[in-house]
Amino acid sequence: MTIIGIAGGTGSGKTTVVKKIVQALPPHYVAVVPLDSYYNDTSDLTDEERRHINFDHPDAFDWKLLVKQIHQLRNGEAIEQPTYSYILSNRLPETVHVEPKPVIIIEGIMTLINKKLRDMMDLKIFVDTDSDERLIRNIQRDVVERGRTVDMVINRYLDVLKPMHEQFIEPTKKYADLIIPQGGENLKGIGILCKYIEGLVPDKEGEL
After folding, report:
1. CB 17 within 8 A of CB 7
2. At 119, is the secondary structure helix, strand, or coil?
3. Helix, strand or coil for residue 83?
4. Pick the residue with more confidence: 192 or 129?
């Protein structure tokens, strides 16, 4: 099994990179584990308290559960991956059944910040994109998918996203084996990455 960690700021193009890797490998060969699914369960908090959660701080994530479930996948055990609602700011009762696959991709803004998680990775990637581009993508995504206004997104970017990125996300670039500049637009870099990953699993066709 090959475990790949993909980190980078919000709106950097991580999802595009993941999609390209998945497309480069045989069908049903990759399991993607999003860090966004592992926000802490906030059932014990009020709605007002939930609205004040800093989702861009390492403490917002249930690292213990994520590390445990990656261990399970690596040991050949299926997991019940939690799901999270940005609208409710809470974990949902539904889970996603994930079977162990030859390639496991852990994707999220702070995927490289936790040492226990890093130590399980065979390849660590940081997707690096200009801050202005990331802001534009955040506006486009959050207005459509998360019910926020443009002013809400911009204020949150200035008050939370930018300082948290500089404090916690950007420093994890030093742990990356490979940095993909320009995010999902760097097709040549992503292509080289996909070829490298294919080389990590040379007998993939025979294992299907």
Report:
1. no
2. coil
3. strand
4. 192
